[in-house]
Design brief:
The structure holds two protein chains of two kinds. Chain A is mostly helical. Chain A contains five helices and two strands. In chain A, about 25% of the residues are buried. Chain B has six helices and no strands. Chains A and B meet through helix 3 and helix 4 of A and helix 5 of B.
Chain lengths: ~70, ~140
């Protein structure tokens, strides 16, 4: 699923590892989400949106799903 | 709602379990009167355990050991388990057919295949019932 995670993360000057630690997932999972190889669960998607203080729709583009 | 990943096991669990399998492996072959062969198979088990410990920088090994457990690896594990089951049953079916080609009865493979399919079906039904109730 298309998303703005990489953009939002780099805006905050966070590494994938740092975001992963904040989300309690692995760095590989953050990488997989950013490269659209993995669609996160609803709880993780909500946690990511809250972390970046955005709505789900602002972070994830359901219409652009792979 | 998507299933949550279970709590990750400590890092030493998988290598320890693999290494621990060396003991019953050796004992089984020793009881069967072939301790040397048992020692070889036990050494294979121990080598695999060492590879699991030494290869912790490999992503695949980390997945096997459950070092980076989260919802994605849980999903990967589930898919890998399903693929493994299909491959195992297919391999048994191929072995059964190969036995037929060799002129053998293939009874061992056929009975093992039937037993596994029965076990798989019962497990599948039971798991669906329990998971359905929990979801």
């Amino acid at each position: 699923m298309k998303n703005a995670i990489r953009e939002l993360r780099t805006q905050r000057e966070l590494s994938q590892a740092e975001l992963a630690q904040a989300m309690k997932v692995s760095r590989q999972t953050i990488n997989a989400i950013e490269t659209e190889r993995y669609t996160p669960s609803l709880p993780l998607a909500i946690a990511l949106a809250r972390f970046f203080e955005r709505t789900i729709e602002e972070v994830f583009d359901a219409d652009g799903s792979a | 709602m998507q299933m949550e990943a279970p709590r990750p096991a400590p890092a030493w669990v998988v290598p320890a379990l693999v290494a621990a399998l060396a003991v019953p492996t050796f004992v089984a072959f020793w009881i069967g009167g072939r301790p040397q062969l048992g020692a070889v198979w036990a050494a294979v088990q121990l080598t695999f355990a060492v590879v699991l410990v030494a290869g912790r920088r490999s992503d695949t090994i980390r997945l096997l050991r459950g070092l980076d457990d989260d919802e994605r690896t849980f999903a990967l594990e589930s898919q890998a388990t399903a693929i493994t089951a299909v491959v195992l049953v297919t391999a048994l079916a191929v072995l059964f057919l190969a036995a037929g080609v060799r002129g053998e009865s293939g009874l061992v493979y056929a009975s093992l295949l039937l037993l596994l399919l029965l076990l798989a079906e019962l497990t599948h039904l039971g798991a669906l019932a329990v998971l359905n109730r929990k979801s």
